[in-house]
Amino acid sequence: MLDIALLPGEYAVCRMAADSVLPPELSSGLGVADVVTVSWTADGISVICPMDRAPALAVVETAWRCLRLAGPVEVTVTGTLAALVDPLAGARVSAIAFSTFDTDYLLVPAVRLREATAALERAGHRVLG
After folding, report:
1. b/e map of 29-61 (b: 16 or more CB within 10 Å)?
2. Which of its termini does the chain have fewer beta carbons within 10 Å around, N or C?
3. Interatomic CA distance for residues 87 and 89, integer angstroms
4. Is the separation of the CB atoms in 44 and 55 below 8 Å?
């Protein structure tokens, strides 16, 4: 059984051109429960952030909810993402996963949050918040 925290608010998945400059307000003044992650590739920059921090020049896919695996989780532990994503796939709920040094996160569509948490609970996990 895994403990999973539902973070407050809605999140955005954003795409920016590869040569874009990230706005400083993206990471300044983060609240205790806020998370922002940035990935760079030759094709572009992807940003996941609270909706109110979405960069103005980004293509934005909004209305996601963020789930955080209670951590810290050792980097060498295997199977945790599968334990979260597999029940969601079985319930036909889309998910975006990302990790930090300390733990794993999942985004699920806000309109499917109820189905997502039910699927995780059926799999034996506890969703808090």
Report:
1. eeeeebbeeeeeeeebbbbbbbeebbbeebebb
2. N
3. 5
4. no
What residues pair up with 37 in beta bridges, in sequence order? 48
69 CB neighbour count, 10 Å cutoff: 21
With a cut of 70, say whether residue 74 has pLDDT above it: no
**21 Cβ contact list (under 8 Å, min separation 6):** none
Is residue 13 predicted with pLDDT exceeding 80? Answer: yes
Q: When comparing pLDDT for 67 and 72, which is higher?
A: 67
In 3-state terms the chain splits into helix, strand, coil percentages (rounded to 5) of 25, 35, 40
Report whether CATH 2.30.42.10 matches the domain 3-128.
no
